[in-house]
Amino acid sequence: MSWLLEKINSGLVRAFLIVVALFWLVPTIGLLASSLRSPEDMSANGWWHVFSKPSQLTFDSYRKLLENGDITHSLWNTVLITVPATILVVVIGALAGYAFAWMEFPGRDWWFLIVVSLLVVPVQVALIPIAELFGKIGLFGTIFGVILFHVGFGLPFAVFLLRNFFAEIPRELLEAARLDGAGELRLFTRVVMPLGGPAIASLGIFQFLWVWNDMLVALVFTKSGTQPITVALQTQVRQFGNNVDVLAPGAFISMVIPLAVFFAFQRQFVTGVMAGAVK
Predict the structure, then answer these.
(1) From CA 80, how far away is CA 147, in angstroms rounded?
(2) Using CA atoms, how far apart are residues 78 and 210, in angstroms rounded to an integer?
(3) How many helices (H) and strands (E) does the chain have?
(4) What is the pLDDT of residues 207-226, one digit of tens each?
């Protein structure tokens, strides 16, 4: 009888999770359906009518999107901002996390406390001062300036996360590698980095999603030629009646890329989040 109850309970839990997942995917499905409809069909009725009238589906909106130079250029700008900002945060955060976890230097704990305290600094507080600083040194309105801003505000969390993860590595393992003649660089690249893969993947996913979906920082620090896709779509909203056939496919592409990144690394993400929860 107990095995029957366990099977029923597991079946109910699985059914509940499937229902939650379907509800979670409804906005994505709706946006995809809208992007495959003509502006006339979208103004006439809701996106769910595609299930009763599949003949409404067309790729004309995506063709017009590719012909819109502002949208395609902004999508490329998003890639140019997100990829370097993610890589720099992961690399610098991993190096700093290893140093704070296993290297001895004066004031290590105090420096780490300062880094952790930076987590409570809101982005909004730094927008105006950094904008003025970037204006004086010629970085305002450039892609490099946006990357620097994201790296600066992404590093405190990266150092905090990776330091705590690296500190859980058994000391005996590192001492054995040192006895075999491994230096700090070799120890970091050959031992710590492979063991820290799940945490690094989690950090990379977090940083990628934050930067890709950012609009506030990009709205303040970019100009017309350096705007990412989020700002470009926002400017199209002002002319919503004329650009609905561009907004829907543009918004779907902007959303589906981070979704694909998340699903591609979801196993490493879950492993990194659960690391240390079970001894």
Answers:
(1) 9
(2) 12
(3) 15, 0
(4) 998 999 888 899 889 888 88
